């Protein structure tokens, strides 16, 4: 597989000196126009003076003196403003700044999959691009996710003789989403899945896990997908996608500006988004604590890629009262609704905000996503999950997340997965070891010991394991209709691996409404000019339930579209 993403190398002090000198040369030229264009200025071809600076010097400057560069973006004569100014500006009901502090063609807000893909495509199309993120480090939830992606018609599927189709993907996604998804959006990501996957490989340099036996990308089963179409990254983490994307942007002189939070969107009299207010150095994402604020004119547009709000207990429980503080969450700290609120304040139409997914594969023993969830989810393809009160299965373990989580909530207590050595997928072993290490997964030698530990009726448990094994041997799940993997084996040998399962808030299917070109739709149901959005910040792709692996796909496909479209929009004068 081609995997050509280059990484930024370490700078020697001489190189750093060159870079800083080059940076100041660039800055001098930029200040002549009193307009600051950050990133990709050599592709834009719009400022002839800039073209006289060697691209190599500029890239060194941007890459190696990034912090200095990011901190020097004010127009001459504009002093930094204080936190009080944020309050004043955000409280104002109308009116544009008399003078912008800075200007850029495209501002991308958020540096997860969607934001990085948008920034990459907008820069590739020739726009000057900045990308900001409120956190101290970039990557969003994406960098901490598993990074698995659903692909229809992949080379791996063809090599394995698996028949798949856009229709099958759409049907699976609509079934899980209870038909609340917009079919055109589902179809779009399905149709673009293989070309997007190939783009990650050939253009970005992402490395996907390989199957030693077939020599192709590794295919894994995922709940709700009726065929094997999901592929994990080699790194077993979304960082295997965000890092190569970030490195690609760095090659173009674009660095993620961290600790920089979107505070407000400015619209002109025609309703077009023409700029933003950003707040730097906020404590706990509280705008009133900003060390400095700036206004930035966005001459082509803003891309919102601010992710979900799973950890925002007040916001999420206002949408779904069941999801109060007693329900855990898999998201990274800071996953709150502040970006979404800015968009709603600017008149974006919020849709399906109460469609909040709980992830059934998490352990009550661990915080957040934990280390064992990857194992538990993978093992669901092989192992029975029982209600400890009865010793019986109660759900198809490969159903979608909504049905699975709802079924566990219905029990009123955690469910119990009983896996065993006969069915331990090698690729998830690291997660199994981590779970065994922290007690989220417990090893047993006999079913008797399991029944005794968890107070399960022993005879019912034994009868359940016997009937499950009979289903596996027959290749048909007569109990719940689970589709067994080809390598599924009956559970015959210890050790058994037992894990409690308790759903946690995982994904926000709702967000701002967009059209198929990622233009944000306003409360008048018309596109808001100058405003685009992609990824978990948007609604409409997943309906009532996102299928596993459809999130990565959604973010990359729509992030790219948002970047391409904003770069095509008419620039402001
Ligand atoms: C633990 C975990 C595992 C997962 N595994 C998978 C998987 O294997 N496959 C799959 O398909 N999906 C998976 N998902 C879901 C998927 O990874 C996410 O939906 C996806 O990462 C969202 O990407 P995004 O770019 O929309 O947002 P994010 O990656 O969350 O990025 C949003 C960024 O915006 C920034 N931001 C927010 N508000 C502001 C603001 N006001 N100003 C400036 N910046 C702001 C945030 O700091 C953040 O960095 C997983 C999710 C989690 C939590």
Structure overview:
The structure is a single chain. With 573 residues, the protein is an alpha+beta fold. Among the domains are: 11-79; 145-238, no CATH class; 361-502, Flavocytochrome C3, Chain A, domain 1 (Alpha-Beta Complex). 35% of the residues lie in helices and 16% in strands. The chain contains 19 helices and 19 strands. It has helices spanning 13-32, 41-44, 55-64, 66-70, 83-91, 113-124, 155-160, 166-176, 183-191, 193-204, 239-251, 313-319, 338-345, 373-379, 401-411, 429-438, 447-454, 458-474, 550-568; strands spanning 102-109, 129-132, 149-150, 230-231, 256-257, 260-267, 273-280, 292-304, 350-351, 356-359, 385-387, 392-393, 415-420, 441-444, 496-501, 504-508, 511-512, 519-521, 527-533. Strands 1, 2, 5, 6, 7, 8, 18 and 19 form an eight-stranded mixed β-sheet that branches. Helix 14 (373-379) packs across helix 16. The longest helix has 20 residues, at 13-32. The two termini are 45 Å apart. Bound molecules: flavin-adenine dinucleotide (FAD). Residues 109-115, 132-135, 140-142, 144-148, 238, 261-262, 305-307, 330-331, 334, 338-339, 369, 506-507, 535-537, 548-552, 555 line the site of flavin-adenine dinucleotide (FAD).
């Amino acid at each position: 597989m081609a995997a050509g993403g280059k990484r930024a190398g370490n700078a020697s002090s001489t190189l750093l000196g060159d870079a800083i000198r080059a940076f100041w040369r660039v800055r001098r030229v930029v200040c002549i126009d009193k307009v600051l264009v950050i990133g990709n200025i050599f592709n834009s071809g719009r400022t002839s003076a800039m073209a006289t600076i060697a691209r190599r010097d500029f890239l060194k400057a941007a890459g190696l003196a990034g912090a200095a560069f990011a901190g020097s973006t004010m127009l001459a004569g504009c002093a930094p403003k204080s936190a009080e100014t944020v309050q004043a500006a955000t409280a104002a009901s109308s009116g544009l700044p008399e003078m912008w502090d800075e200007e850029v063609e495209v501002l991308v807000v958020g540096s997860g999959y969607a934001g990085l893909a948008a920034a990459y495509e907008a820069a590739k199309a020739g726009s000057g691009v900045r990308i900001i993120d409120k956190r101290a480090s970039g990557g969003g939830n994406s960098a901490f996710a598993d990074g698995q992606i659903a692909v229809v018609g992949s080379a791996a599927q063809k090599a394995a003789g698996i028949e798949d189709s856009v229709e099958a993907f759409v049907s699976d996604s609509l079934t899980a989403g209870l038909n609340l998804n917009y079919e055109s959006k589902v179809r779009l990501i399905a149709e673009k899945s293989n070309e997007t996957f190939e783009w990650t490989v050939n253009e970005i340099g992402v490395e996907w896990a390989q199957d030693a036996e077939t020599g192709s990308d590794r295919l894994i089963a995922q709940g709700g997908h009726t065929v094997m179409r999901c592929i994990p990254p080699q790194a077993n983490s979304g960082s295997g996608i965000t890092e190569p994307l970030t490195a690609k942007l760095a090659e173009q002189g674009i660095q993620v500006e961290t600790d920089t939070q979107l505070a407000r969107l400015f619209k002109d009299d025609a309703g077009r988004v023409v700029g933003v207010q950003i707040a730097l150095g906020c404590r706990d994402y509280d705008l009133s604590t900003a060390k400095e604020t700036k206004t930035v004119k966005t001459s082509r547009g803003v891309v919102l890629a601010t992710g979900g709000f799973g950890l925002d207990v007040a916001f999420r429980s206002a949408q779904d009262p069941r999801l109060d503080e007693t329900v855990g969450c898999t998201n990274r700290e800071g996953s709150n609704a502040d970006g979404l609120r800015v968009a709603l304040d600017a008149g974006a139409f919020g849709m399906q905000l109460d469609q909040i997914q709980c992830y059934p594969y998490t352990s009550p023993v661990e915080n957040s996503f934990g280390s064992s969830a990857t194992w538990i989810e993978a093992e669901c393809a092989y192992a029975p999950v029982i209600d400890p009160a009865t010793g019986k299965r109660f759900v198809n373990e490969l159903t979608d997340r909504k049905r699975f989580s709802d079924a566990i909530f219905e029990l009123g207590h955690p469910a119990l997965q009983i896996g065993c050595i006969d069915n331990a997928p090698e690729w998830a072993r690291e997660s199994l070891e981590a779970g065994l290490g922290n007690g989220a997964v417990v090893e047993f030698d006999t079913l008797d010991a399991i029944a005794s530990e968890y107070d399960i009726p022993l005879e019912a448990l034994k009868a359940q394991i016997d009937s499950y094994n009979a289903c596996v041997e027959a290749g048909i799940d007569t109990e719940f209709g689970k589709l067994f993997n080809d390598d599924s084996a009956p559970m015959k040998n210890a050790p058994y691996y037992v894990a409690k399962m308790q759903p946690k808030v995982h994904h926000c299917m709702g967000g701002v409404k967009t059209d198929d070109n990622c233009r944000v739709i306003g409360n008048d149901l018309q596109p808001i000019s100058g405003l685009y959005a992609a990824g978990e910040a948007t609604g409409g792709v997943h309906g009532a339930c996102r299928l596993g692996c459809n999130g990565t796909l959604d973010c990359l496909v729509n992030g790219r579209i948002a970047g391409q479209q904003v770069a095509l929009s008419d620039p402001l004068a």
